[in-house]
Amino acid sequence: MKVHVFKSKEMIDQEVATLIVSKINAKPNFVIGLATGSTPLGIYQELISLYQQNKVSFKDVTSFNLDEYVGLEKMHPQSYRYYMNHHLFSKTDFNVENTFFPGETSENYDLLIASKGGIDLQILGIGGNGHIAFNEPGTSFDALTHETLLAHQTRLDNSRFFNSLEEVPTKALTMGLGSIMCAKEIILVATGLNKAEAVKSMIEGDINVNCPASILQNHINVHIYLDEDAASLLEGN
Ligand code: PGA
Description:
Strand 2, helix 2 and strand 3 (62-65) form a beta-alpha-beta unit. Helix 1 packs across helix 2 (41-52). The protein has 237 residues and is α/β, with parallel strands linked by helices. It is globular. Helix content is 28%, strand content 17%. The strands form 2 sheets. The protein has a 7-stranded parallel beta sheet, covered by helices on one side. A 3-stranded antiparallel beta sheet has the order 4-8-7, with no helix packed on it. The chain is built from 7 helices and 10 strands. The chain has helices at 9-26, 41-52, 80-87, 109-115, 152-158, 177-181, 196-204, and strands spanning 2-6, 31-34, 62-65, 67-69, 99-100, 121-124, 146-149, 171-174, 186-190, 222-227. It has a single domain (2-175, 192-227), classed as 3-Layer(aba) Sandwich (Rossmann fold), CATH 3.40.50.1360. Bound molecules: 2-phosphoglycolic acid.
């Protein structure tokens, strides 16, 4: 794992977006794994800005989103399909037919990813409980894309986007940790003090299903981008 600590979230957003753009320019039919939540929003804004400056085209890029709620209409404002259309796809030249979500296709998601050549770069956030995508503590490290129950803490965390906790779905479809580990390169971004414990367990703890993100220690090409708050509990920091 390579850990990069930045003074601000804005600096991380610029750095990661610039990196993504340079990789797409080097390989226009790039396959990118995308995340939702608050973490990648700034990266998507930077990507839109670079697109508007004609620095990149996404028209031949294929994307695979990590996860999607079960039970929300596709166009529900809190569905991840809606989020991606709204925050990235509709504001760039992404070909929506090349954008995939678990549950939207009848094909096996992991086989579909493999048929496109695999994910060149996976963008990840991390939950306060150490989850990545909706792989909650206790999920097998070998799991491929599957349906899962959301942890109470995750529903509480995500209830800020809904009118009430009751409205937050109880289930989701998610790429498994085994699916995520197949990505050729992974960038995980974490900012804020509320992520500091999970970041410490991920980087310095044992590899243990209680911290799903700790499996990333076994991946050969992982970059962790942190602000100073998220990095504050790391040894030597
Ligand atoms: P956040 O969520 O980006 O909204 O903090 C990250 C996650 O739960 O994986």
